[in-house]
Backbone:
């Protein structure tokens, strides 16, 4: 089908990201927005923009009927859902097809097959992919408790629908399981409209690795290598990198081959991700399929040179992939830090307000995918993701040094963000050495809320440092450089020094 105009059914940084590729391809664009997003960056960037309702997502970005109505009124031929919201809704994909619109994503029946986590496990089991012990069907509360006795503790309670770490709880005993099941059900129902749960054995000190897949309707399926997403907070990813330092060439080939085999088996068409868990013993296990564009697709683009959104558009138009597997030759290393409007020092509570000052970093190897601008008001209605900071380097050491420099340059005034947490993580010798797992943040960066004199001391220090910066002083230069910073620069130069 000839696609000339695309509606982006999303907001924030991912809407801007898709809009940019559409502009490069000469496609006209349509944005949709809620009343809270009227002044947002994606609204100003698009050729046309339409309001679809009040701020709550149930009355705006989840109103597929309104979005389709706008698409038809604007003369769009296709809808790109981004990620989140309606990106994994088979019902919305079907409604698009019935309205004569191209849904830029997998087929509805494929989404039903792999978007349902239990159904995806069944497919993986048929293909004899390694699986963690878990339940193979939806169970009531009593059934989950009984199943956990056979699986063995600790277990993960996970939502059947959706993704993004929502609806996941850890239970280390039967008593704890009974208490978390109702919480997980409520969270899953609120997020996905489905309170179905299943169980999976918890692997301690595991690493999270995923494989990016592209597949067209002509039967071509390729992978773009793996990403590591082990730096997480409560199953929400914070830092991603590609490739993974945890994989050797043989293990990398096995994991990527398993991902391709699974996607071929379900007849997948589009961009998608197959996720795996890597145990401390080196064994890997299938977790799930994400039938959409991932937040962290940027690091794969950085090392492969493939514009994944462009390939999504080509596939949706019925064209063949622009690459074969032999064309994919990853080069260098890439990291992504998710910049969130959250306060890590106070339980990661969301931060809202007007962005009074914004200074984004740049320079060699740096990319910023942002959905905000100076003067914009950040509300509590939506996800706290403000932007994604990506650094590329010839080696992991170069990428880390560039990320440290970019984080030091980044400035957001008016909101509390997690920039300082990212700076601390990138300065960690354990992170530099690749010695981390999915609970790394909780084990090494747990912060208690400051009280009394600590608050006063922290406030006075912040005021003093800010005054010195404004006065042009070189803050902290009297102290010796961190040996880990020195090590990073040494490795970045290939051990040859300056």
Residues:
């Amino acid at each position: 089908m000839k696609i000339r105009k695309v509606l982006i059914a999303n907001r924030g940084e991912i809407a801007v990201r898709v809009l940019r590729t559409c502009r490069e391809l000469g496609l006209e664009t349509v944005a949709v927005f809620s009343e809270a997003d009227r002044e947002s960056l994606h609204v100003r960037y698009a050729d046309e923009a339409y309001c679809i309702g009040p701020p709550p997502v149930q009355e705006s970005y989840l109103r597929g009927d309104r979005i389709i109505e706008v698409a038809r009124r604007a003369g769009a031929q296709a809808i790109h859902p981004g990620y989140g919201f309606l990106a994994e809704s088979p019902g919305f994909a079907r409604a698009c097809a019935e309205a004569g619109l191209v849904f830029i994503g997998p087929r509805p029946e494929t989404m039903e097959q792999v978007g349902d986590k239990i159904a995806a496990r069944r497919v993986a089991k048929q293909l004899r992919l390694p699986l963690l012990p878990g339940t193979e069907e939806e169970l009531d509360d009593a059934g989950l408790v009984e199943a956990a006795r056979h699986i063995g503790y600790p277990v993960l309670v996970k939502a059947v629908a959706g993704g993004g770490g929502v609806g996941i709880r850890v239970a280390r005993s039967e008593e704890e399981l009974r208490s978390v099941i109702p919480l997980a059900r409520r969270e899953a129902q609120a997020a996905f409209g489905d309170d179905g749960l299943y169980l999976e054995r918890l692997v301690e000190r595991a690493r999270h690795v995923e494989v990016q897949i592209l597949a067209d309707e002509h039967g071509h399926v390729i992978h773009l290598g793996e990403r590591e997403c082990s730096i997480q907070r409560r199953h929400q990813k914070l830092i991603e990198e590609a490739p993974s330092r945890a994989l050797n060439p043989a293990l990398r080939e096995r994991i990527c081959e398993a991902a391709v085999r699974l996607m071929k088996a379900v007849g997948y068409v589009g961009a998608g991700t197959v996720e795996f868990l890597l145990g401390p013993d080196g064994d890997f296990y299938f977790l799930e399929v994400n039938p959409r564009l991932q937040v962290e697709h940027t690091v794969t683009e950085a090392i492969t040179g493939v514009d994944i959104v462009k390939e999504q558009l080509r596939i949706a138009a019925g064209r063949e992939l622009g690459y074969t597997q032999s064309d994919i030759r990853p080069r260098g290393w890439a990291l992504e830090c998710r910049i969130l409007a959250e306060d890590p020092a106070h339980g990661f509570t969301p931060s809202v307000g007007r962005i009074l000052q914004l200074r984004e970093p740049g320079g060699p190897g740096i990319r910023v995918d942002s959905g905000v601008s100076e003067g914009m008001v950040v509300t509590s209605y939506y996800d706290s993701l403000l932007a994604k900071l990506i650094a590329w380097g010839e080696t992991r050491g170069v990428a880390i040094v560039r990320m440290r420099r970019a984080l030091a340059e980044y400035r957001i005034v008016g909101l509390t963000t997690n920039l300082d947490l990212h700076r601390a993580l990138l300065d960690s010798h354990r992170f530099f050495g690749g010695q981390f797992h999915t609970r790394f943040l909780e084990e090494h960066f747990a912060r208690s809320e400051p009280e009394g004199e600590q608050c006063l001391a922290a406030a006075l220090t912040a005021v003093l440092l800010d005054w010195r910066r404004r006065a042009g002083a070189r803050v902290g230069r009297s102290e010796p450089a961190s040996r880990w910073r020195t090590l990073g620069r040494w490795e970045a130069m290939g051990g040859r020094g300056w």
About this structure: The chain has 17 helices and 22 strands. Confidence is low (pLDDT under 50) at residues 448-454, 473-498. Residues 455-487 form one domain. The two ends are 55 Å apart (CA to CA).
